[in-house]
């Protein structure tokens, strides 16, 4: 999608502080971190949100969560972490491209915000 912020980041048109990248996904540090360790994981292919997913994307989602687990293990998140995806305006989604926030290295309250 030509006007999507995260598509532009995935294409390298906008710089990011990368944590991980392969052919299908990109993980990068959040520019407004809400925890001492806060990164985003996005698919390089554009999906508006989790509401746009079908069972066809199961392998992609499995890959995303495997990479999240590996990155958290490699970065000392042994006490735990939270993975969040927001859907739509009322769900708090500010960028209309599927993305997962990963927050760690502080206690996270429930219910969230």
Automatic annotation (TrEMBL):
Organism: Anaerofilum hominis
Listed name of the protein: Histidine triad nucleotide-binding protein
Superkingdom of this protein's organism: Bacteria
Positions occupied by motif Histidine triad motif: 97-101
Active-site residues, record numbering mapped to chain: 99
Molecular functions per Gene Ontology: catalytic activity
Domain HIT: 5-113
């Amino acid at each position: 999608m030509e006007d999507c912020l995260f598509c532009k980041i995935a294409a390298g048109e906008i710089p990011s502080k990368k944590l991980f990248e392969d052919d299908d996904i990109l993980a990068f540090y959040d520019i407004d971190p809400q925890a001492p360790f806060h990164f985003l994981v996005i698919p390089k292919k554009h999906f508006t949100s989790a509401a746009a997913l079908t069972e066809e994307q199961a392998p992609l989602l499995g890959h995303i969560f495997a990479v999240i687990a590996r990155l958290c293990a490699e970065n000392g998140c042994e006490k735990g972490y939270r993975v969040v995806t927001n859907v739509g305006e009322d769900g708090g989604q500010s960028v209309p491209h599927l993305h997962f926030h990963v927050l760690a290295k502080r206690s996270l309250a429930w219910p969230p915000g």
